[in-house]
């Protein structure tokens, strides 16, 4: 139970937030502007949770993570928390939670594509050998591997949308990202062309002249960028994820028709309507009621926009990966990934929840190879593909493997695990500490937590038969989730110090 302490003023809270944000971002205090939205500093979900959790301790009451969206600057957030602090100071016996009631959201009403976005008239000629391709999300995990596969499977120059002050900074970011996954080679340099811009701006934050130059010269577009944040509501993620997709479609339709290869997500089927049902690649995804995560909601709306553009005549392919695991050959993965952080936290805690999960993550090299290969086949146009793991295994297989490595692991009932999470995890040294607001937040009328949403009984069965048929003869196969793959992943995580065997 949290008891409110003496009330704090907005100025005191602001000073505290400033110093903590500066420390988290490793910048000087004077580099943080109290009127600047927090997300412009590139805070990820985990860092935001660290600050929220520390603030809860300092203030003595619980903070709904969504407050960070409704009050996005330090100045506005401090003011709101000060009001709360003053209201609560008079009555310390209660347990307090600052809640935000999410407005009722009709996702189908959100799926509206600018009527001006229509494919240019004129004959579209498909080419499997593009000269100039455009990619978004090149500084992300999947983005690095997509760039790598485009460099391997095509001779194209690759124009990469990237944030930065100038092209050289953009190029350094792309290089650094490829290097971090062991993919960089100096011979790539001349073919990687940074385009300074921003997914959340009109025309992707690119000048009108450059946007038009790209529209006239590109041969195809790969749109893999999206802001992934498990805590933010739809309204916070709409601009980059939904409106950003609209701008990509605008680029695709202007002057000459360019096919769009869109990276969606199996999350478009997260509505309870699909629970336990088999979902095939060409099935409609009309049902959105009961999709709770803001991120998943934006993926549903964004894919709807892509299908509207398709119905207007734009050639598109839609790729729906599940959670994406590390490289099956090297084990290289994104260690800030939610799943990796939860596994590390559970190992440190010594307990895993006994839950009916299936490991259906697909290795990133399988996903990236498949997307690029399928994008080069004319018969892929107009289709959707499921890059789901074709043979998922129970979560217990992973636990048995970790047990054999010498990790001391015990599984306990989920409720008991939650109690331990609340009572025993008290420092940010355990990644679960920063993920607590996310793991414990209750959603919907049923008041279920996020881990409940991913139980096997609530999930659709993603069929990928048509995708496997389309990949037949390509030499691309999804590696089995077996001892060899677990060995590759655990070796990587142990060698880079992310995991430690006691």
Which helices and strands appear, and what pairs or packs with what?
Blueprint: H1 10-25, H2 45-59, E1 62-63, H3 67-70, H4 74-89, E2 97-98, H5 107-110, E3 132-136, H6 141-153, E4 157-162, H7 167-180, E5 192-196, H8 208-217, E6 220-223, H9 234-253, E7 260-263, E8 278-279, H10 294-311, E9 316-320, E10 324-325, H11 338-349, E11 351-353, E12 358-359, E13 362-363, H12 364-375, E14 384-386, E15 393-394, H13 395-405, E16 410-412, H14 414-424, H15 431-440, E17 442-443, E18 448-449, H16 450-453, E19 461-462, H17 465-471, H18 483-495
Parallel strand pairs: 1-2, 3-4, 3-6, 4-5, 6-7, 7-9, 8-19, 9-14, 10-13, 11-16
Antiparallel strand pairs: 12-15, 17-18
Helix pairs in contact: 1-4, 2-15, 6-12, 9-10, 11-15
Notes on the structure:
There is one protein chain. The chain has 502 residues and is α/β, with parallel strands linked by helices. It has two domains: 10-98, ACP-like (Non-ribosomal Peptide Synthetase Peptidyl Carrier Protein, Chain A), CATH 1.10.1200.10; 128-333 and 359-392 and 461-489, Rossmann fold, CATH 3.40.50.720. The chain is built from 18 helices and 19 strands. The strands form seven sheets. Strands 5-4-3-6-7-9-14 form a seven-stranded parallel beta sheet, sandwiched between helices. A hairpin with a 4-residue loop joins strand 17 and strand 18 (448-449). Helix 1 (10-25) packs across helix 4 and helix 11 (338-349) crosses helix 15 (431-440). The longest helix has 20 residues, at 234-253.
């Amino acid at each position: 139970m949290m008891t409110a302490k003496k009330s704090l003023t907005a100025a005191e809270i602001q000073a505290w937030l400033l110093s903590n944000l500066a420390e988290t971002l490793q910048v000087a205090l004077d580099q943080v502007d109290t009127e600047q939205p927090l997300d412009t500093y590139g805070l990820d979900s985990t860092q935001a949770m660290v600050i929220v959790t520390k603030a809860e301790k300092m203030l003595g009451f619980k903070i709904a993570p969504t407050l960070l969206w409704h009050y996005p600057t330090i100045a506005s957030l401090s003011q709101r928390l000060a009001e709360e602090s003053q209201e609560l100071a008079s009555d310390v016996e209660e347990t307090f939670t600052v809640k935000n009631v999410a407005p009722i959201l009709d996702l189908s009403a959100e799926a509206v594509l600018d009527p001006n976005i229509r494919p240019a008239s004129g004959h579209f000629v498909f080419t499997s050998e593009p000269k100039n391709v455009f990619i978004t999300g090149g500084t992300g995990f999947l983005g690095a591997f997509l760039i790598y596969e485009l460099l391997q499977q095509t001779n194209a120059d690759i124009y990469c949308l990237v944030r930065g002050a100038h092209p050289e900074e953009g190029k350094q970011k792309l290089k650094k990202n490829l290097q971090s996954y062991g993919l960089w080679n100096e011979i790539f340099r001349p073919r990687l062309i940074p385009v300074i811009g921003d997914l959340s701006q009109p025309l992707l934050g690119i000048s009108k002249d450059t946007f038009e130059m790209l529209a006239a010269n590109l041969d195809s577009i790969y749109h893999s960028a999206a802001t992934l944040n498990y805590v933010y509501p739809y309204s916070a993620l709409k601009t980059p994820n939904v409106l950003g997709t609209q701008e990509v479609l605008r680029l695709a339709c202007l002057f000459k028709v360019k096919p769009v290869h869109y990276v969606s997500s199996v999350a478009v089927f997260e509505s309870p309507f699909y629970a336990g049902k088999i979902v095939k690649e060409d099935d409609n995804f009309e049902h959105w009621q009961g999709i709770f995560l803001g991120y998943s909601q934006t993926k549903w709306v964004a894919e709807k926009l892509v299908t509207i553009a398709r119905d207007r005549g734009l050639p598109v392919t839609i790729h729906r990966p599940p959670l994406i695991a590390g490289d099956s050959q090297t084990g290289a993965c994104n260690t800030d990934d939610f799943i990796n952080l939860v596994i590390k936290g559970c190992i440190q805690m010594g307990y895993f929840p006994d839950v009916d999960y299936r490991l259906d993550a697909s290795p990133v090299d399988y996903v990236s190879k498949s997307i690029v290969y399928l994008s080069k086949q004319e018969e892929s146009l107009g289709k959707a593909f499921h890059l789901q793991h074709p043979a998922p295994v129970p979560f217990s297989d992973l636990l048995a493997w970790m047990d054999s490595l010498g990790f001391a692991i015990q599984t306990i009932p989920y409720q008991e695990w939650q109690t331990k999470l609340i009572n025993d995890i008290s420092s940010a040294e355990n990644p679960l500490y920063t993920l607590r607001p996310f793991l414990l937040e209750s959603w919907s009328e049923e008041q279920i937590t996020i881990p409940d949403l991913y139980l096997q009984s609530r999930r659709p069965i993603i069929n990928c038969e048509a995708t496997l048929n389309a990949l037949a003869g390509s030499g691309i196969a999804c590696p089995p989730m077996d001892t060899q793959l677990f060995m590759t992943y655990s070796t990587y995580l142990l060698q880079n110090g992310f995991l430690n065997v006691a």
